[in-house]
Amino acid sequence: LVQTLVTGVVFGILVLVPVVLLDHELYGKWTVTPLNIFLYNTGFGGGGGGAGSSVLYGVEPWYYYLKVLVLNFNALTILVAGSGIAVHYLAQGSSMAGVPLVPVPLWVVLLSALPHKEERFMYVIYPGLCLLAAITSYRFHMEYGWPHPRYDTRGHPKPLRKGSMPKTFFLLLLAVPVLGFARIAAVSVHFAAPMTVWGELRSVIPLSPCAGNCTICVGKEWYRYPSSFFLPEGSHLAFVRAGFTSSFRS
């Protein structure tokens, strides 16, 4: 455990140093961005009446992230929920076997305690969720020998165990891509307004007086800007200095 903590600290420093140097170059002052994010969102920085300045952008109930995970990972959340039992059977007495289980619930609990919540805050644990689902799947394979047979020490295939569990597991895995594609389609259809608006620039800008040298101003909502891919040739982005952008370097 001590070695794991030391390794984490060392790699944390290796990542933090270039981040601080790059931020100094971009912002024109010494700052630790991860620390600023922590202070801004938790209230330790003095904003939001002790709840963090991020409450200005909306608050959600404590179970918000649970809904998000079920929505994005659909049937895989069942496998994630069973990963604790799977690790217990696969541990074989190892004291470190439970380490993969720690980051996901820890991250969800800590962020659920903050009033302001956003779906993107969960992105960092998505690889961990996939790992936990894979552990449960492996345990299922060890138990039932499905979808392909297990082999004994002599290389001979063991017989598949019959019953309803393999069929249920197959339907569960089948539901993952089906629901995933349905989610992607729903987002693409019902939340396409920003992309549609930006997509019209290529047909509108050439007809404007500034064609070839246009400034596209997004006001203070620079964080909603999707990509430079949408800017026509000869155009460049601009925004109003306000809020987050007030500290940006000219």
Pick out its properties:
250 residues; mainly alpha; two-stranded parallel sheet; extended
Molecular structure report:
It is a multi-pass membrane protein. There is one protein chain. By secondary structure, the chain is mainly alpha-helical. The protein has two domains: 134 residues, no CATH class; 69 residues, no CATH class. The chain is built from ten helices and two strands; from the N terminus they run H-H-H-H-H-H-H-H-H-H-E-E. It has a two-stranded parallel ribbon. Helix 5 packs across helix 7. The mean pLDDT is 80.
Count the E strands.
2
The proportion of residues in beta strands is under 5%
The figure for the number of domains is: 2
Overall outline: extended
Fraction in helix: 40-55%
**Lateral strand order in the biggest sheet:** 1-2
- The value of Rg in angstroms is 25 Å
Span from first to last CA? Answer: 46 Å
H and E order: HHHHHHHHHHEE
Q: How many H/I helical runs? A: 10
- By helix and strand content, what is the structural category? mainly alpha
The residue ranges in which pLDDT falls below 50 over 5 or more consecutive positions are none
Report the average pLDDT across residues: 80
**Largest β sheet strand count, sense and barrel closure:** 2 strands, parallel
